[in-house]
Fold:
Amino acid sequence: MKIDPRDAAAVSAEPAILVGVRTRGSRMDFEDPLGELRDLAETAGARVVGELLQNREAPNGRTYLGKGKVEELVAMVGELGARVVIFDNELSPSQIQALEEEAKVKVIDRSELILDIFANRATTREAQLQVEIAQLEYTAPRLRAMWSHLGQVTGGAPVGVGTRGPGEQQLEIDRRLVSRRLVALKRELEEVQVRKAREVAERRAEHFTVGIVGYTNAGKSTLFNALTRGGAYAADKLFATLMTRVERWNVGGANAVLLSDTVGFIRDLPHHLVASFRATLEDAIHAHALLIVLDASDREAPAQLQTVREVLDDVGANTQPRILLLNKCDRLATLHHDERASLRTAAEWQEREPGALAISALTGEGFDELRARVLALVAGGVERRTLRIPIASARLIDAVEKRCIVHERRYVDDEQHGQAVELDVEIGDRQIEALLPMGEFLVDGNDARPKRAGWGSGKRKPPHLVDDGEP
Ligand SMILES: Nc1nc2c(ncn2[C@@H]2O[C@H](COP(=O)(O)OP(=O)(O)OP(=O)(O)O)[C@@H](O)[C@H]2O)c(=O)[nH]1
Ligand SMILES: [Mg+2]
Structure:
């Protein structure tokens, strides 16, 4: 038997009713509480025909919604011909079961919806493995509910769970099949990930790496494409990107870094999903620096930034320097006055987030400053220094000329070192380190080689910059 819970949770093209329960401390958007769920549902392909919202101190244990609201929902389902009900909240298996008994249609929650989107987007083997594992782990305890979905899928009236559904024995067999499949999938994923972790470690040891992270739809892939040769899929959809991409980005002179585009974040992502995200975010977690992309034209930007920071903490990406990018600044001018009034102004952002940089991934506004900031990170503490390099080390001299600002050149000839060139340059610690593999030289009269703190602390091999073309 092939276990494919995707069929069970798939919502494509189905008339759907969205339901949200706003409890105390909920992070829903106040003005449009179901806005994000609507985007998610549409991204998954559902047709939203109705919405229902309830404010409650705490959810109802059995049906999440209060009794009266459940009746309202049942009536709506009938009137609007809905085939699926999508909850913004995370439901327990028994709540799903109880709601399905009442509504007589499929009920899924936000996590299942997100998983459904992931399932449709997953194109690489790694992403497919991650999605299937997350689905099985999430769905396995809901097998009963799943079987009622399958009852519908296979035609006929919805099966009342526990009445005409599969017997306990069948459920037990299915649970065992699920756990066996999980073991096999996890083993395969582990192999893929060991290889991936090795690649990431290699990249990190040899290059300065920069990860682009941010809320879904913030413009990460658009920025990535604008800065590099591109190739990342960018679209006005949630979770357009599921796998990381890595490309080189020239940040000025012959200094290039490796930039990675990553999967977007979203609020209230359940923990098992975060776990599968973790591997997807390997590049970002181990990056030397992070660019946090925020859609500054979205009213929810402050809450989204908070989510992004929480996820970064969760996955352990919290030691490297970060640059906050206020993206889509070109849109601000086109917004209606009322819409703009609900946004933070650039000045307000600056005040709360010193160092935030307004950019537009579409028009390229702010890119020069962004390059300069990243270059400063790459270079380390830039100072004016004098380098003495043997004339014979043509490659080294060339690299310095290309990567640094050179104020003066002098040719010198000393007995100990022979013919050399002295360059007065602006150069950072990391740039010096990056030059070490190319040959011996003096910095302000001292051998350049004494130990310096590298990018990858404890790494024996000094990391170096990517060479864009021949020096
Ligand atoms: N006006 C404007 N639109 C932008 C800008 N940057 C991105 N967009 C649009 O925002 C939408 C989402 O862009 P993506 O680059 O796919 O966003 P993402 O962060 O990669 O999204 P996910 O991969 O889904 O997490 C697209 O329709 C882009 O054209 C910008 O600076 N200005
Ligand atoms: Mg993307």
